[in-house]
Design a protein that fits this description.
Shape: globular
Number of strands: 18
Strand content: 25-35%
Largest sheet: 10 strands, mixed
Structural class: alpha+beta
Helix content: 25-40%
Distance between the termini: 58 Å
Strand order of the largest sheet: 1-7-8-9-6-2-5-4-3-10
């Protein structure tokens, strides 16, 4: 097969000659795989739909230290949209926009704003996973296909999740390229782009917001269809303030590689953060993505210097912190100066901080987390964090 690259702009005729690269070919056999058909190797990537993929990728690189490393678009023969792929550690974001105003991508962006479309899982066997999930009741978006170029083959299938979110099932064991067949090195399109690593290593968890009364439905979906287990359960008594509350359950794939908290609003005197999200997102979706670092002091210092805005809690939070958190290796004064939250459980402690929404709509945001033994989610920080979010809601007139 002719190498796909930017030095030869592809015509529509050329495009149609490359179905393995751009359209894929259906595949049905699952080979001799004998392991757990629903086994996961972790998050593969997160796909974000946005109105300007170049600009969003630039934001993630300049603000969060991601490296742009793969590209697909008209220059490579892909004529349906533009995709910029950025990476830091093993955290990969696929940033997608459409070239046409009446496309499904454009319609989804008009409805939700910038939004997560795909929380993709990497698996040992794509066909085995897909077949088992469908047998258990999953709704298919795309049957297993394989995409290939000179770097090998990637297999992909997709099932529906909450709202307009989907889970793609990715098998990469026979692929040696950078991201996907048909993609080229980012520097072939945008030369001399340099990234400064900020210490982000991996996607830790991805949090969903769903409508009132729907949390149990999706908990059952992940349990019965994808074989997840309930890891933690937080009630409105755990996550509440004077004005609002929410409920949350954390789903875990069993290996700890994929954690998916699910939130729903609870009755309160005023509009909760979940209700605000559902209103401005026009339905359920991904509320935030948590990314793990091993040196949160360094990471947050870098991100704040780059202009990333974070939620802040009152200074009184830090007065009680030494007694509540105990001895840790980090400097508590630096933690307070940066606005980082801390919590401890039986397994250790964690440090975490949350950005403000990354777009004008008060929807998607990021969390930076450092785990020192703890596999929890900072229950001791819930009240302070929720109150910080409510202060932002009040400033927006949405509380």
């Amino acid at each position: 097969m002719q190498k796909v690259g930017v030095r030869k702009i592809m015509s529509k005729k050329d495009f149609k000659k490359n179905p393995k690269v751009y359209k894929g070919e259906p595949v049905s056999e699952s080979g001799d795989y004998s392991g757990d058909p629903l086994g996961l190797d972790g998050f593969d990537h997160i796909e974000i739909y946005t109105s300007n993929a170049k600009q969003t990728a630039h934001f993630l690189c300049t603000a969060f230290g991601f490296e742009p490393f793969a590209y697909c678009g008209p220059e490579t023969g892909f004529r349906e949209g533009v995709v910029h792929v950025v990476k830091q550690g093993s955290a990969i974001y696929k940033i997608t926009s459409s070239l046409y105003a009446d496309s499904d991508i454009s319609n989804m962006i008009n409805k939700h704003g910038q939004t997560v479309k795909d929380v993709a899982f990497q698996v040992p066997d794509c066909v085995a996973f897909y077949n088992e999930a469908i047998k258990r009741g999953a709704e298919s978006v795309m049957k297993p296909y394989e995409f290939s170029d000179e770097n090998g083959v990637v297999r992909k299938a997709t099932i529906k999740a909450y709202g307009d979110v989907q889970h793609s099932i990715i098998e990469r064991k026979n692929f040696s390229g950078s991201f996907w067949p048909g993609f080229v090195s980012y520097n072939e399109i945008f030369p001399n782009v340099k990234a400064v690593d900020c210490g982000i290593e991996i996607v830790d968890h991805v949090v969903a917001n769903v409508e009132l009364g729907k949390m149990e439905h999706w908990v059952k979906f992940y349990e019965d269809v994808l074989g997840f287990k309930e890891m933690l359960h937080f009630t409105e008594d755990d996550i509440s303030t004077e004005y609002s509350a929410l409920m949350s359950k954390v789903m875990n794939d069993g290996s700890g590689k994929v954690k998916l908290p699910i939130n729903e609003p609870a009755d309160g005197k005023r509009k909760s953060q979940i209700e605000e999200y559902l209103e401005f997102h026009n339905g359920p979706g991904v509320q935030h993505i948590a990314m793990r670092t091993t040196d949160i002091l360094k990471t947050i210092t870098n991100l704040q210097e780059r202009g990333v805005s974070f939620l802040r809690v009152p200074k009184t939070y830090y007065e009680a912190l030494p007694e509540r958190i105990g001895d840790i290796k980090e400097d508590l004064e630096k933690i307070g100066a940066l606005g980082i939250l801390a919590d401890r459980d039986d397994d250790g402690y964690l440090l975490q901080i949350f950005t403000k929404p990354i777009q004008d709509r008060p929807t998607l945001f990021f969390e930076i987390i450092q785990r020192e033994g703890s596999q929890g989610f900072g229950i001791g920080n819930f009240k302070a964090l929720f109150e910080a979010i409510e202060r932002e809601q009040e400033r927006r007139g949405n509380l």
